[in-house]
Amino acid sequence: MPDGAPRTARADARFGRGFLTDAWYFAAMSADLKPGRLSRVELLGEPVALGRSRGGQLFALRDVCPHRAAPLSAGRFHKDELGVETVACPYHGWRFRADGACAAIPSLTSDQALDVSRIQVRRYAVAESQGMVFVWVGATPLGEPDQPPPVFPGVVDGGPKLVDRMVFDAHIDQAVVGLMDPAHGPYVHRQWWWRTAGSEHDKEKRFEPREAGFAMVRHAPSSNSRAYAILGGRPETEITFRLPGLRWEHVTVGKRQVLSLTCLTPLDEGRTQVTQIVWSDHPAFSLLGPVIARMARTFLRQDGDMVKLQNQGLKHDPTLLWVDDADRQAKWYQALKREWIASRREGRPFENPVEPATLRWRS
């Protein structure tokens, strides 16, 4: 291949199959979990009963009672005479502690000896961080977290200004690559307030490795990205990706900040929950909050619509052809996944395969 010619690569054969484990996945906003309430969520194809007891303790249990398979999320919290709260199955009242052990079977009589604590449902480690709830999905049911949940820069000014959710009809791999793709903007997101026809420019951005991912290092936004004008001043932005599916843009305008976080949570192999969360202490979000929220929702739904179109081709299981430099981030994502799997299998520290690079594309 001549020097300077575009390089291509085939997508890894495992792309779009399976999920990363031994990782924290975004499950809900803290405000979603009201005391004394249970809800059903899906994570990596598994049902999870997620809730907060009246005393404030988080529960994350496999949402299948081992007795008759009723969903525990349809049950309620029960407090015994010692004040211990458990989840009671709606079918026969079997009660389970936060650690997954059965605490009581109401139908047993006093003379029926049974060590109910030997009956278990899978318990998931769950933690709150910056107003978000993360669930640790281990490679085995007994796997425990060996790292804290992620922490993000720019979570400022109290609660988020925007929380928007949408389910993409795609495997998390396709969703991640679609959202990090730098070249689709002029075709998928063409609005007068963002880009106009014929406004494509050559781009050159520096990237560097970050914790379990990489970042487009801080820079002034491109001149044809009009939405930043709302912020005034001289905004600078940095865009970061981290496994298993977290992407955020941290914008600073002097001392003011905007953080736009996208959390991708695989529900199953064909659906991915995409949650967009925005925090800011910039006055624009007080003055133009509804307008900015509508712009953000428009972007997310345009990406979702493109996923539906893409599925018409993906159903034929094609081999995907990726071109440098616009597709380098997609290839980094593949390499990061391979290293994550290898490091966990071999019991060694994760070694980030991403090397610092300057990438060029037109958009």
Question: Briefly, what is this?
Answer:
It contains five helices and 20 strands. By secondary structure, it is an alpha+beta fold.
Question: What does this protein structure show overall?
Answer:
The protein is an alpha+beta fold. 17% of the residues lie in helices and 34% in strands. The chain has 5 helices and 20 strands. The strands form 5 sheets. Strands 12-18-17-16-15-14-13-20 form an 8-stranded antiparallel beta sheet, with helices on one face. The chain has a 4-stranded antiparallel beta sheet with strand order 6-7-8-9, with no helix packed on it. A 3-stranded antiparallel beta sheet has the order 2-11-10, with no helix packed on it. A hairpin with a 2-residue loop joins strand 16 (246-253) and strand 17 (256-268). The protein is globular. The two termini are 25 Å apart. The relative contact order is 0.16. Mean pLDDT is 89; it is low at 1-5.
Low-confidence stretches: 1-5
Please give the largest β-sheet.
Answer: 8 strands, antiparallel
- What's the order of the H and E elements? EEEEEEEEEEEEHHEEEEEEHHEHE
By DSSP (H or I, 4+ residues per run), the number of helices equals 5
**Radius of gyration based on Cα positions:** 23 Å
Overall average residue pLDDT: 89
Helix content: 10-25%
Q: Which oligomeric state applies?
A: single chain
Shape: globular
Strand order of the largest sheet: 12-18-17-16-15-14-13-20
Q: How many DSSP-defined strands?
A: 20
- The helix/strand class is alpha+beta
**% residues in beta strands:** 25-35%
How widely separated are the two ends? 25 Å
